[in-house]
Amino acid sequence: MNKKYRLYQIDSFTKNKFTGNPAGVITNADGLTEEEMQKIARELNNSETAFILPSDNKDYDVAVRFFTPTKEVPICGHATIAAHYARAVENNLASSKVIQKTGAGILPVDIIKENNDYKIVMTQGKIEFGELIDGINKENLLTALNITEEDLLINHPVQIVSTGHSKVMIGINSKNKLNELKPNYDALTKLSNTISCNGYYIYTMEDNEILVHGRMFAPAIGINEDPVTGNANGPLGAYLVKHKLAKHDNAVLRFKAKQGEAIGRAGIIEVEVKIENEEPVEVKISGNAVIVFQTEITAE
Known about the structure:
isomerase; globular; isomerase activity; Diaminopimelate Epimerase, Chain A, domain 1; Phenazine_PhzF-like; 18 strands
């Protein structure tokens, strides 16, 4: 008999359906082949779909694999939020900690039950600061984004940063410019092959309740624009601490980031960066989620 798989469509970093970042989730993916997972992700056509698998090791509770429409990726912020939200609702979990195995390592996720709903806190992977994008690569990047040196934030170096899935950090000085961006996706894809980084996070900063507004483009992995990106805002937090670009108390930096406004899918991420000896040492992101629909599918 063919197994039925429980499929959810979940909007992350929001409590309002059809906003935030949509992710597919299959909560009982044991038995699916890698090819079947990729086909399901392609069919759903979300930026990522998460597949929850049982643990075969005492070191973790569940394994989670993440697929874009075109390839598997090591980890995904909004799909992690979606996966553990679906699992919490399905199992009526109390507030608890879940250890997940991902392509970015074995990492904890905190399930916080509040008002008969859930907030999910994701601890991200190892913080890594990559190369500065300069010279011809920077010229090609600015051309692809149709911006100039004068649009960039002063003292915000263009740099690759990762907490499990790397992004290029690009700070600009105008929210209007941010919302008007119309990148050359082919040029960004070509540059990704050169710099070995698929995602470009363009952000601006404001000194109010929402510190960061951003947009994230990753055409090289089939995501022209991702609405609300955990694996962009998390490493951005580490970057802001590293380059002393945000106020904090020398122990933790907390801020909110809003993304997706330009494409009508706004959502809010809360970012927390633990700091030791003026260096970022751990990043957590958190957010809400809402189930848009749930169904069952049978793999042929």
